[in-house]
Amino acid sequence: MGFGVASSLENGAVAGLYGAIAIGIVASIFGGTPAQISGPTGLMTVVVAGFSVTHSPLLDIAAHRPWIPSLESPENVLEGIYVVHIHGSLFFGNAGPLQQKLGEIQNAKSLIIDMRDVRYLDQSGVYTLSDLIEDMMRRGVTVYLCEMHEEPSEILAELEVAPGTLPVEQIFATVEGAVEKAARQAAGETSAQEPTKPEEALFSWGSVHPIGANEALERLIVGNQRYVRGQSLHPHTNPATRRVLVEEQRPFAVILGCSDARSVPEQVFDQGIDELFVVRVAGNIMTLENNASIEYAVKFLGVRLVVVPGYQGCSAVDAVIDDNVDHSEVILNALEPAVEQARGMPGDLLTNAIQTNAHLVAAKLKEELAEFTEGDPDRMPRIIPAYYHLDSGKVDLMEK
Question: Could you give all domains of the chain from N- to C-terminal order, each with its CATH number?
Fold first, then answer.
């Protein structure tokens, strides 16, 4: 374990910092865990448990990719193009080996940083990475980032490092895509700032498309958890993102939701531009137009997840219960089966009817898409009914 800020001492912050480092080294020698207990919570507050070489960011040999340089003797992938692989979480104080190895690279034209094994970045890690990128740029090296996971990608975007310090045209989903771009740049066929073709590289927060239903669902769950905690990132809404998306859209999930102004899927799931294909109608009912829109997302955009959230206190369902004929007859008629089915259920009729409607719509959609996809399991999306709590912001999945 480490010390916090020793505020009662002269130069207390420095004393606390050095104490944390010393205790961390001792812990690593005598059985300390390599996990980071917490990142900085103040200007200089550091808490670290242990320091393990195996968890430090290092250049990896990565034998399964023969063109990645070895740790001992970095070699060119192609003329002047280097690929480095970062292992483990990156945070304040543990970037030394990476800085040293990058400093050994000579005559580099392009450096491709493979982030596939970086699952966590705190703010200090982001600034460390930013310093490394800026140092290479000052040396005239074009830097590419690739293979980033969602959480590191989001904090890099939030703090305007990537995209920001590093333009979106230099952020790739795959190492192969970045190597190809760097090779064309070296051959004078393109520049690093030339807009990246969507089929050539899909920037990190989109991942390699189409992604599977399970990964898509995990993104929605994690995003909703941020929203519930009041820690939304509002990712990927900057001008660079808009420019690169002019030619093509690549959402990872469809949301068939209600038109209610209090239920905005991009907010509820904390997703940005190009991430959700949203179809909205009062009462989130099925219509021919809704079905056609969802079929388009499945067939042409490769989406493999559809979520059908009803929401707390839905006024359209409430109108059916109250027999309020002032509402649209089309919507009332579509919701009537759910209300009738819910009347015999224990508990609150309105809540039961809203949830029943989500189940019925999901079931109907499965029938329609099963016919549309001709029973092909590779094309058939996962369809999940859900219930959105207006008061807490939480989305409950109701998949049976």
Answer: 12-53 (no CATH), 56-206 (3.30.750.24), 213-397 (3.40.1050.10)
CB contact at 8 A, 25 and 36: no
The three state secondary structure string of 49-66 is: CCCCHHHCCCECCCCCCC
Rg of the chain in Å (alpha carbons): 25
With a pLDDT cut of 90, the percent of the chain lying above it is 30
SS3 279: strand
State the Cα–Cα distance between residues 281 and 335, nearest whole angstrom: 12
Distance CA 215, CA 253 (A): 10
**Sign of the four-CA dihedral 182, 186, 191, 196:** negative
Amino acid at 174: T
> What is the residue whose two structure tokens read 């703010």?
123
Residue 308 burial class via C-beta count within 10 angstroms: exposed 0-12, middle 13-18, buried 19 and up: buried
The answer to whether residues 263 and 309 touch, using CB atoms and an 8 Å cutoff, is yes
Q: How far apart are CA 45 and CA 50, in angstroms?
A: 16
For residue 149 the two structure tokens come to 């996971």
Separation between Cα atoms, residue 153 and residue 55, nearest integer Å: 20
d(C-alpha 76, C-alpha 236), whole Å: 33
pLDDT digits (tens, 9 = 90+) for 205-242: 333 335 788 888 988 998 899 899 998 878 777 676 67
Contact 258, 319 (CB under 8 A): no
Please report the DSSP string for 188-234 in residue order.
TS--TTSPPPTTT---GGG-SSSPPHHHHHHHHHHHHHHHHHT----
CA distances from 384 to 221, 249, 281, 322, 339 (A): 13, 23, 17, 28, 20
Whole-model pTM? 0.55
> Measured between alpha carbons, how far is 277 from 206 in angstroms, rounded to an integer?
13
DSSP 232-272: ----S-SHHHHHHTSS----SEEEEE---TT--HHHHTT--
